[in-house]
Design a protein that fits this description.
The chain has 284 residues and is α/β, with parallel strands linked by helices. The chain contains twelve helices and seven strands. The strands form two sheets. A five-stranded mixed β-sheet has the order 3-2-1-4-5, sandwiched between helices. The protein has a two-stranded antiparallel sheet with strand order 6-7. Strand 2 and strand 3 form a beta hairpin.
């Protein structure tokens, strides 16, 4: 496999109760971890999502509510899942848009610290679409000359995706073998987003912007001045937890900058003036 690794890389696939990143939950997770020395290990678990599985999801995956009712919840498994992933970079098929955002939401619901932003993310589907414009079934046929026989089983899909990924690396001589370059290449489009849902953008100077609606393209700081209630509306609305986390961190950064600027512009008080100010503050 033509892949240069500086740290472990995990290929993953999720089966879920539905397709809503904010609301739906994981019912099956399959992962393959590849180490820099080329060795691979696997992780597969069924999960009780604690919410009903949609009929559409059952029809696609074959997984019913009865099949998962006695399985551990994500909260039960969170430490085990996090330990398997470790500090690995992540990849999958359509994973930047779905699997990784869903995984991030589950970690946030479980109040488990799991830093996504420190990882490189490779989306095999985006590589495929940029190179050949096909679906996963066609990708497997095209790259591996095999037919998929058990689609929508998390571990089977993960193994197929890993096979396709390996074949892509072998087929395209001009495709880099580093995770960093592959993550950049597999990112959809050229616009940098700050969250998985694409609701927030990121400027070259690091400032976060709204990436939808009437304030599209405006920075969080700018909107906080012109419409202060917009931030509160978004925090109360039905947006992904990860989007809200990024938005909250940006607002805290903005407030910290304002406090620092205010402190810089205020004249330094003498010891006597500070004492008088304290006495006035607590004077009854």
């Amino acid at each position: 496999m033509k892949l240069s690794l500086l740290r472990p890389f995990v290929m993953l696939d999720l089966e879920t109760t539905g397709l809503d990143i904010s609301k739906d939950r994981i019912i099956e997770i399959g992962m393959i971890k590849r180490l820099p020395d080329g060795t691979e290990t696997e992780f597969f678990r069924r999960i009780n999502p604690t919410i009903p599985i949609t009929t559409e999801s059952t029809e696609i995956t074959g997984i019913t509510n009865e099949m998962v009712k006695n399985e551990p919840t994500f909260v039960d498994l969170v430490d085990e899942i996090a330990a398997f992933i470790g500090d690995s970079d992540l990849g999958g098929y359509n994973s930047n848009k779905f699997d990784i955002p869903v995984l991030a939401e589950e970690f946030l619901r479980a109040h488990h610290v799991f830093d996504i932003r420190s990882r490189k993310l490779i989306d095999v589907q985006n590589i495929f679409h940029k190179m050949e414009q096909r679906t996963l079934v066609a990708a497997y046929k095209f790259y591996c000359e095999k037919d998929m026989e058990n689609a929508h089983n998390a571990m089977y899909d993960t193994k197929v995706t890993m096979e396709v990924f390996k074949a892509q690396l072998e087929k395209y001589d001009d495709l880099s073998d580093t995770v960093s370059d592959l993550a950049d290449f597999s990112r959809q489009g050229n616009t940098e987003i700050a969250d998985f849902a694409g609701r927030l953008g990121k400027l070259k100077n690091g400032q976060i912007t709204y990436n939808f609606g009437k304030h599209r393209g405006k920075t969080i700081a700018e909107v906080a001045q012109t419409e202060p209630g917009y931030y509160g509306w978004m925090m109360d609305a039905d947006f992904p937890l990860y989007t809200k986390q990024i938005l909250r961190e940006e607002m805290e950064r903005i407030k910290a900058e304002k406090r620092a600027e205010k402190s810089k512009n205020e004249p330094e008080l003498t010891a006597e003036e500070k004492l008088i100010a304290l006495q006035n503050k607590f004077k009854k």
